[in-house]
Amino acid sequence: MLLAATAVIGMAALIDTYREAVGTANTVSDRVLAGSALAIAERVVVAEDGSLEVDIPYVALEMLTSAAQDRVFYRVDGPPGTFITGYQTLPSIARRNPRGAVFGDDTFRGEPIRVAALERSASTGIHSVPFVVTVAETTIARQQLTRAILLRSALRLAMMILGAATIVWIAVTYSLKPLERLGDAIALRNPADLHPIEERVPEEVEGLVETVNSFMVRLAAALGALRNFTGNASHQLRTPLAIIRTQLALSARAATLEEARAAAREGDQAVAHAERILAQLLVLARIDAHAAPEEAAPVDLVALARAATADHVPRAAGRDIDLGFEGEGTQAVRAEPLLVGELIGNLIGNAIAYAGAGASVTVRVVAADEGVRLEVEDDGPGIAPERRGAILERFRRGADGATPGAGLGLAIVEEIAALFKGRVRLGDGAGGRGLTVSVTFPQA
Ligand SMILES: Nc1ncnc2c1ncn2[C@@H]1O[C@H](COP(=O)(O)OP(=O)(O)OP(=O)(O)O)[C@@H](O)[C@H]1O
Ligand SMILES: [Mg+2]
């Protein structure tokens, strides 16, 4: 691209040079042409009979012909209509300038010529007779001069472009070398190696390298979190698996059918627990897959919450918990119904699991200033305010070790809410007791 641009600029410069060369050649040659016309004019005299006579000084023409293979023509005319001597068909110039020669371009015998015309008058002492001397020459010498000037500047220009190209080539190659080294260094890296790039690079790409480095830091953090998560998840699954093994061994050694049945019951509970953890992990995987959802279609949060509440009624009844629902009409939010169902299910499940027998749990959907608010409220023991922030983390559990769980429920709630631009808040329950978890979604 640089070369193309330089070539275009060079072309423009060349056209300008050509114009100037023509101008220069004309100025130089015109002066000689005028001198020759003047030399002839000096020799025009008035004869005794009043007519004009001229004795052409051949040196006057000689100074022209010596230039090149140019041919020279002339004519001398007296007062309008009278031709005195020279080439009668030679074109002259009608325009006159009393102070000097006038010049023009024309053709004569099929060749281009340059014409100079000089008006003077010869005097007898009594009266003066005007006359015009016209001198013309072919333009070979001028063209040669023009061509020589043009050729030289074209040559100079070509060398300049070539030189610039070489310099650009060397400079670009040299300054891109560090980028190549950078590319090699990254290509050779171990995929797990996320420490910052320390290659020396040109100033212009330092910003890029900084961006890549900060990205690597974030990537390292994300990978670390993933490793931590995988470790935690497998640890969580190992516990029920170990229980199942123990119970299987016990039932194998059981002396009575009763003992074997008891072991099977324990094992079955551990399987249910493992199943629950797996289900939660699958939900988390589904959230990750949803990480950049296109705008979800609107769904009615009232209907979703009512259905989820109905699903939990038998379990609540089994624990002697009064589970109720409040909410009217429809409240549309943009969310994925399965994931929102999971969110509500986790909250109701927690309330049933931790509020304790005899508690009452209320699921509520209300319109709020900031959007649509879903609340799950209970009057159980709740969570101490200072522990509410941390309880949202994955695998974080409360003191209640008796209830089986992995500590993923509230993390799932928060991640699903974030996915659909919702916000989770933990507050006190009804009458200052228990816990209210509220999730506010923007209204669709
Ligand atoms: N309604 C509630 N009342 C009192 N404590 C609660 C309530 N909900 C949650 N908690 C406390 O918060 C902890 C974290 O809850 P979360 O739902 O994240 O995990 P989990 O219920 O222990 O396990 P999972 O839901 O993965 O089976 C619980 O262990 C419990 O101690
Ligand atoms: Mg839970």
Describe this protein's structure:
- The strands form four sheets. A five-stranded antiparallel β-sheet has the order 4-3-7-6-5, with helices on one face.
- The relative contact order is 0.07.
- It has three domains: 2-148, Beta-Lactamase; 203-287, Helix Hairpins (Orthogonal Bundle), CATH 1.10.287.130; 294-441, 2-Layer Sandwich (Heat Shock Protein 90), CATH 3.30.565.10.
- A hairpin with a 5-residue loop joins strand 3 and strand 4 (83-86).
- It has 444 residues and is α+β, with helices and mostly antiparallel strands.
- It has helices spanning 2-42, 58-65, 140-187, 203-253, 257-289, 301-318, 337-354, 409-419, and strands at 44-46, 52-54, 72-77, 83-86, 102-108, 111-123, 128-138, 298-300, 322-326, 332-334, 360-368, 371-378, 423-428, 435-441.
- Adenosine-5'-triphosphate (ATP) binds next to helix 5, helix 7 and helix 8.
Q: What's the topology here?
A:
Elements: H1 2-42, E1 44-46, E2 52-54, H2 58-65, E3 72-77, E4 83-86, E5 102-108, E6 111-123, E7 128-138, H3 140-187, H4 203-253, H5 257-289, E8 298-300, H6 301-318, E9 322-326, E10 332-334, H7 337-354, E11 360-368, E12 371-378, H8 409-419, E13 423-428, E14 435-441
Parallel strand pairs: 9-11
Antiparallel strand pairs: 1-2, 3-4, 3-7, 5-6, 6-7, 8-10, 11-12, 12-14, 13-14
Helix pairs in contact: 1-2, 1-3, 4-5, 5-8, 6-7, 7-8
Bound molecules: adenosine-5'-triphosphate and magnesium ion (MG).
